[in-house]
Amino acid sequence: MENVCSTYFPCRSDTPAPNLDLGWPEKGPSVQTGGVAVHTSPPAEGEPPVRQIVRQHLQKAGQVIAIVTDRLTDSAIIGDLHTAASRGVPVYVILNQRSIQENFTLNRLRHPNMRVRVLGGKTFGSRTGQTVVGEMK
Q1: pLDDT at 134 (0 to 100)
Q2: Full-model pTM
């Protein structure tokens, strides 16, 4: 396979790459091999909650933050995203459309250095006229 990245297949994609107008690092982060960290909720005994781990990563981010989630309502995490964006770190967020339908407000994610996309699943119509909307996967 030529011109293939481990996370995106531009030669084989049927959709264009999203607009990353805030920038994206040219060089990926250095990856340490040989270790995996698994975090659970509720946390294992003596381990910090997943929320705390996520916040630590957001607070240390220096190049880019990219989040894909079904729902983003935690005020502290949203605050950390704003703080990172204010430091000049590009922040990209992809949300599930259902989170918008459940009174989620995009106003909480407004910042000049932040981009938010809302995606939904495919919509299918049956022969009987029933509509089924899928989820973002």
Answers
A1: 64
A2: 0.71
